[in-house]
Amino acid sequence: MIGELALSHEHAILYNTIRVALGSFLIGGCLISPDDRLSPRVIRILIVSPLALVGEGLRLLIERDEDLRVSELVMNMLEAAETLRHNELDVVTIFDEWGGSDCVALVQCLKSIKPRVPLMVISRDLNPPQVQSILTAGANGYLPLNADPGDLRRMVYAVSRGELTLHQTIARGFLDYLANADVDHSLPSFNELSPREQEVLAFLVQGMSDQEIAQALFLSVRTIQSHLNHLYAKLNVHTRTEAAVVALRAGWFPPSLDQK
């Protein structure tokens, strides 16, 4: 798929970093997991759209899949916060008509209410710094407004599993941005993390859940969550997505050069 994206060698290395670290690859235009199979349960979705027609359109497109159900459709931050606070939901889908810091603030607000509920953003703004801001605010996925409806549904499944998911029309510019971005020198060095924190972070950027990391390290889920909290504090982040992006930008988990 790298050939289809016409990436430079430097981009290909960065692409492989994300692909290998997250156990993902491009299918139908989305960076998603090889295990992109139908969920055995109905996925409950909250749509946040300031435009009623767009929101209803997204509902119709999403519910073409019988395992996806739009439980609530709201139009602003206050309604979204109250709905998320009082309902059991699996995915939040935001149509970004606000742009810039307003959408970032919405993502941050919703993640502060229920950090473990995955969130994706649909936007016409493909500017890499904005994509970066949305992801570091805690979003798991970013989809362009002109994406195929099938990509929309595939991304819902991917983010419902907590995966970091990018559409290929965003990936090229985002990789270029990562390649040229300055490293945050306020970050601790990798060696400043404890050996256990390094292990947990390595599993985290592979897209593994707390339960899967606990099983891999023969530890309790509570212990893994404690390590994650220490990592978040050291990296000055609040979510798994932020931690994964920071680790990738810092080059802490480069891909093997023999990766196909």
* The top level CATH class name of the largest domain: Alpha Beta
Number of helices: 12
Let me know the average pLDDT: 79
Shape designation: globular
CATH architecture of the largest domain: 3-Layer(aba) Sandwich
What summary fits the major beta sheet?
6 strands, parallel
Q: Regions with pLDDT < 50 over 5+ consecutive residues?
A: 1-39, 255-260
Q: What share of the residues does DSSP label as strand, in percent? A: 5-15%
What is the CA–CA distance across the termini? Answer: 10 Å
CATH topology of the largest domain: Rossmann fold
Content-based structural category: alpha/beta
- String of helices and strands: HHEEEHEHEHEHEHEHHHHH
| Strand order within the widest beta sheet | 4-3-5-6-7-8
What is the radius of gyration computed over CA atoms, rounded to a whole number of angstroms? 18 Å
Instruction: Give the % helix.
Output: 40-55%
CATH superfamily of the largest domain: Response regulator
The tally of beta strands, per DSSP, is: 8
Number of structural domains:
2
In short:
The protein is an alpha/beta fold and 260 residues long. It contains 12 helices and 8 strands. The protein folds into 2 domains: 2-180, Response regulator (Rossmann fold); 190-249, Arc Repressor Mutant, subunit A (Orthogonal Bundle), CATH 1.10.10.10.
Secondary-structure blueprint:
Elements: H1 2-5, H2 9-21, E1 25-27, E2 30-32, E3 43-48, H3 52-62, E4 68-74, H4 77-86, E5 91-96, H5 100-113, E6 119-123, H6 128-137, E7 141-144, H7 149-160, E8 165-166, H8 168-180, H9 195-204, H10 210-217, H11 221-235, H12 240-249
Helix pairs in contact: 2-8, 4-5, 5-6, 6-8, 9-11, 10-11
